[in-house]
Here is the input.
Amino acid sequence: MNKYIDGAVVLTSICSLGLTTISIAESKIYEPSNNVVKEMQLQRLDNSLSINLRHSEIYLTPTPSKPEVKPVSDIAVNLIKEFEGFKDYAYIDTDGTPVIGYGLSRIAGKPVKIGDRISPTEAEAALNNHLQEINQELDQIVKVNLSERQLSALASISFNVGINSIKTSTLIRKVNAKDYAGAANEFLRWDKANLRGRLVQMPGLARRRQAERQLFLEKSS
Here is the structure.
């Protein structure tokens, strides 16, 4: 009995020694030296600074500014209003397109339908928005400096016949060639409307083209 007891005691001592050894080993593994702690702290600080620097770069990087929207010329607005007139209900234009307000075929991007109604304030806002779009297009296709009156004349005819038609016109080619007298005479050629599939000269359009031509020739702003 004592033999086995002594053996148990020995084994117990050995086990205790083993646990003590493991504990010492664990303490060596999980208790880093002061140099290791400092390195870990410096690494954390470096990571923190890098993150903060990236965040500051995001805030410091200037956001691209939107292109400046030029105000719509009152000269162009008044000329268009004079010849288009105002109706608060949708009606059929000479080419068969439903229009409303100051001769607008689209309001807020949607085609006008018969039965639509509009207030003067809404029509004014829609007209200004459409003229801003036209001005942006003219900025792209006109390569020379023009006065406000000249640009207003171009905006008026573009509103009436469509900017896409003006883009490829002889009128714009002569403007960019600085043949202003020749460009002014080009206005007079746009005096016809599509009636039932054929172009017909319209007295109202002829008067409008004369007014735009005269405005274009008044080069002073």
Remarks:
- Strands lie at 87-92, 98-101, 106-107, 110-111, 192-195, 198-201.
- The CA atoms of residues 76 and 156 lie 6 Å apart.
- The chain has nine helices and six strands.
